[in-house]
Amino acid sequence: MIRVLCIAFAMFSSLFAHDEHYFRGKHFIASYLDCDLRQLSDLEGLIQAMDGAVAASNATVLDKASYVFPPNGLTIVYLLSESHASLHTYPEHGACFIDLFTCGDVCSSERFHEAMLQYLRPKQVSARLFLRQDTVEELPFP
Fold first, then answer.
1. In what order do the strands lie in the sheet with 61-69?
2. 92 touches 101 (CB < 8 A)
3. What is the pTM of this model?
4. pLDDT at residue 4 above 60?
5. Which of 7, 61, 103, 115 has a CA that sits 20 to 30 A from residue 49's CA?
6. Which domains are seen in the chain, by residue range?
7. What is the tens place of the pLDDT at every residue in 61-91?
């Protein structure tokens, strides 16, 4: 019985050995303005782009929820193993706001950002990366 428990514990522990999370997080926020209106209004395309950006960041999706604000505004929120991601569109203003908060060192906000830029093709971008722990510190972002 003890041997079975030891084997089970070893198997369970190995599942999480590569996925270290620390008491700190990286919080990426971006405003994309003057986006391609066709892309911004394509709800299925936006969802696929966001799915791809989250995958590109190497985050693990646990669940997601979305809501359409007629005729084509979209809010989508992803519950991640590492924390969360969200997207909010304002097609009438050509704008999209995104947020990616992750714990640990596994996820890449840069790859997430690149994927969203490729899809939305904004003419103006304002992006920031913050280190959140017992304080909030702005980090350099490419």
1. 61-69, 73-80, 83-90, 95-103, 25-33, 124-132, 136-139
2. no
3. 0.81
4. no
5. 103
6. 20-139 (3.60.90.10)
7. 999 999 999 999 999 999 999 999 999 999 9
